[in-house]
Amino acid sequence: MSDLIPPLASDGNILAEVNGCLGLITLNRLQALNALSLAMIRDMTALLHHWAAHPQIQAVAVLGAPREGKPPAFCAGGDIRFFHQAALAGDPALGDFFTEEYRLNYLIHHYPKPYVALMDGIVMGGGMGISQGSKLRVLSERSTLAMPETGIGLFPDVGGGWFLAQCPGHIGEWLALTGQTVGASDAITWGLGDVFVGAEHWPTMIDNLRHGEQPSAEHVVATVMERCDIAPSSDTPVAQVDRHFGQPTLPAILASLAQADDEWARRTLQTLQGRSPTMMAVTLELVRRARHLDLADDLRLERDLVHHAFHLRGASASETVEGIRALAIDKDHAPRWQPATVAGVDPAEVAAFFASPWALAEHPLRDLQ
Questions:
Q1: Domain coordinates of the chain in residue numbers?
Q2: How far apart (Å, rounded) are the C-alpha atoms in residues 286 and 288?
Q3: What are φ and ψ of residue 7, in 5° steps?
């Protein structure tokens, strides 16, 4: 067994085990809802490369450790407290985090063996990054998926520009700008999940993956598929989403919502009015550009954007640093966005986000194909 699991460095925040042909990765940072640290990203990357090269391993499954007496969490994102601290300290590990995280996302999308994401509970931000490239994305009625980055003055990264752009109509713009959480039915309908397994079947399913006979990748997949059911229905007003979020500009989206006389539009407008105006503008441009990009080019673009998110204005004036401060450091939930309104957003600053700080030959993700 020892040759199947390389040394891990995340102090137990990533657990690895092998059952027959199946390699299992368990996210085990429970106090942070399994949010990813740099060490966890490195451990996942090492495991996936090791198992890709090992003939005994025919499939991989990733899941969140159970939270005793609490709702489940697959992965709530990246380690935003680390982002804040590293940005203010000028720590180069901040850049390493995003370069290595995006490489991991790319590896999962192109993994040579079936990769199964057991997306029970909270799946946000970085959790979407390590699940959306899966061959099989498994949801329950407890699954809540979101890309909530505009709420902390960031944008949907980890390939989010690309996979949200693949959603039908203008669902991608809506999810990206608002950070709206969605359940299993909508996620499956919009291509962000594959199958639904009711929560009552998860303990047996996971026990069978861990301890039952798993002689082949087909058997691993069958362990999940034999428990699949129809997800509970949703009442998301898709026509309204398309009407408002298909508008050509961010001001036009807000104006369309303001003119609508219904509760959904009022709530949605209120949500957007709490987000970073600058980063909403960046986000809208990202999703619309990503419709015409492949994943590698999208990840390179996102790496440019995340560099600028922390460095374009300097860390002390970064919208992202301010957003994390308000949410997770001071917890006053009152970010001081600059500018405070969409009308004040400088188009030249938005354009500057999309200018790469690196020549192509020097880009941190230059070798992604």
A1: 1-143+183-235, 237-369
A2: 5
A3: -60, 140
What CATH code is assigned to 1-143+183-235?
A: 3.90.226.10
| pLDDT tens-digit map of 346-366 | 999 999 999 999 999 999 999
Positions marked active-site: 78, 126, 149, 157
- Per residue in 190-224, pLDDT (tens digit) is 999 999 999 999 999 999 999 999 999 999 999 99
CA 86: distance to chain centroid? Answer: 21
Q: How far apart are CA 241 and CA 167, in angstroms?
A: 12
Structure token pair of residue 212: 């039952």
| Residue 355 burial (CB count, 10 A) | 9
237-369 shares the fold of 1-143+183-235: yes
User: Got the DSSP string for 214-259?
Assistant: --SHHHHHHHHHTTEEPPPP----HHHHHHHHTSSSHHHHHHHHHH
CA distance 115 to 146: 21
Tell the CATH topology of 237-369: 2-enoyl-CoA Hydratase; Chain A, domain 1 (3.90.226)
Give, rounded to a whole angstrom, the gap between the first and last alpha carbons of the chain. Answer: 33
Q: How far apart are CA 229 and CA 154, in angstroms?
A: 36
Please, is 53 exposed, middle or buried when counting C-beta atoms within 10 Å of its C-beta (0-12, 13-18, 19+)?
exposed
Q: How many helices (H) and strands (E) does the chain have?
A: 16, 10
| Neighbouring-strand partners of residue 124 | 146
